Amino acid sequence: MKKLVWPLLLIFFLLGGLAAIMVGQVVLPPEPRPESVEAISEKWASSGHADQESRSFTNWDENDPPVVPATCAKCHSAFGYLSYLGEDGSEPYSVDSEVPIGSVVSCYVCHNPSAHEKDEAIFPSGAEITGLGEVANCAECHQGRQSGLSIVNATMNMPDDEVNEDLSFINVHYKVAAATRYGSDVTLGYEFPGMDYVGFYPHVADYQQCTDCHDAHSLGITATDCAACHPMVSDLANLRDIRMSDTPDFDGDGNTTEGLYYEMTNIHSMLYAAIQAYADEVIGQPIVYGKQFPYWFNDTNANGIADEDEINFGNRYVTWTPRLLRATYNYQIVNMDPGGFMHNARYLIQIMIDTMADLSETIPIETAHLTRP
Ligand code: HEC
Ligand code: HEC
Ligand code: HEC
Ligand code: HEC
Ligand code: HEC
Questions:
Q1: Which long-range contacts (CB under 8 A, 24 or more apart) does 228-235 make?
Q2: Is 146 a pocket residue for ligand 2 (Cβ < 6 Å)?
Q3: Whose C-alpha lies nearest to ligand 1, atom 27?
Q4: Rounded CA gap, 94 and 82, in Å?
Q5: pLDDT tens readout for residues 166-196
């Protein structure tokens, strides 16, 4: 169908131009032309999707044999994604076997008959979101690998504050933008029983889908687009200052002009302090967060700081309770979506405030000054 559109438009404009010349008027130029394939290719080549050196595409190079396992291939390999789509003739919605290393998110990953037809995505919670159109493919890879239900299942029938050696940290995985966008619709976070959570953050009609804000090929955001409605924006550096005048003081610091980003990240810091207090006082084993797998380590000198000699796999945190597991899972989500303040800040603030309230059942934690969205 789409192939028909341009020839038809061309005929339309030619006829329009002819008509205009005949009545002696100036012809306005037609709508901007679609970008050239060269320009698109250049933009793509500069994006993370094309970065052959990235750990996302080289992580398995030293394996013997050097293959990407089926469980990882969907998002870390062009072969894997094509198999997931069923474009290679296999069953859709699964990758049946390991695939060769050495591919990136290439043109064909998004431009093949199955990818173009695709309209839905299935998230780790099992939730299916339909009507996605051209961004259905984005949602399949930027959805993370866990959901709040993973925590429910891992901690089923376990007392909240008892250390259980069967437990270990559950990481939602990386750049989980699509899962954040849909929030409670896909149960991204651990959601506390009896509480209500927001789903999709609609923002505004023309800036709602991934590719309304991100260029599909460079993946970049054009700050001047945002500035049209958010005058505080001058360039990419101050997207984080965006705030609506009626946005509540979620973090209770009295500052009602700081960007929504800071409302969210201030609460994130408070949650970290609460997690450390709980590990210290309830479990009796201090904890720190380190910016590498598996993210949570013993604070061996109990100074509250992630010292270099503490951040290694051998010193990973092992004394998990169900309450600590759900708190750290929710904490990590905010780190795993660098665009979370835009994608769905209110959902992230909800799960963080509820996590602090949950920890406060065991130790004193001040939450009264916070405003839950
Ligand atoms: C087949 C899986 C896959 C699909 C489909 C996919 N992505 Fe990605 N995306 C990735 C991976 C893997 C990375 C990390 C790349 C890296 O490490 O260099 C990434 C990185 C990104 C980044 C980070 C910016 C950058 O340059 O690294 C953005 C933004 C992004 N993707 C947006 C999108 C959008 C929008 C879509 C849909 C148009 C999409 N992605 C479709 C797998 C995918
Ligand atoms: C649902 C899609 C998806 C699946 C399945 C998936 N990943 Fe990822 N992974 C991503 C995305 C998106 C990134 C973002 C990379 C980035 O940080 O730029 C990523 C990043 C990574 C990174 C790089 C982290 C870093 O520090 O940069 C590693 C390592 C990784 N994944 C390992 C795995 C392994 C191992 C598996 C299989 C057990 C797996 N992934 C399965 C989507 C996925
Ligand atoms: C991550 C998914 C993804 C990848 C990878 C990708 N594209 Fe696209 N492409 C899209 C989407 C989505 C659109 C729909 C229009 C838009 O939002 O720009 C599109 C549109 C296009 C168009 C039509 C542009 C227009 O203005 O109508 C062309 C041509 C194109 N892509 C070529 C390519 C080429 C060539 C590559 C590789 C160099 C590539 N694409 C890689 C997702 C992707
Ligand atoms: C309303 C605009 C908007 C929409 C819609 C949107 N994003 Fe974003 N996204 C952003 C902003 C803003 C950032 C943060 C960029 C920054 O801080 O530089 C971001 C960040 C990201 C990042 C991290 C980029 C990086 O460099 O690490 C990824 C990945 C991403 N978005 C993917 C997606 C995907 C996939 C979708 C659709 C499910 C989506 N986004 C929808 C605006 C949007
Ligand atoms: C057409 C006007 C328009 C454009 C363009 C636009 N926005 Fe918005 N934005 C709004 C409106 C209206 C809201 C309030 C929506 C709501 O009710 O939450 C909003 C809310 C936000 C918020 C939440 C602020 C808060 O205090 O709750 C962020 C963050 C944001 N926009 C970022 C962006 C970014 C980044 C871009 C560019 C990619 C962008 N916006 C483009 C109109 C726009």
A1: 229/204, 232/259
A2: no
A3: 48
A4: 10
A5: 999 999 999 999 999 999 999 999 999 999 9
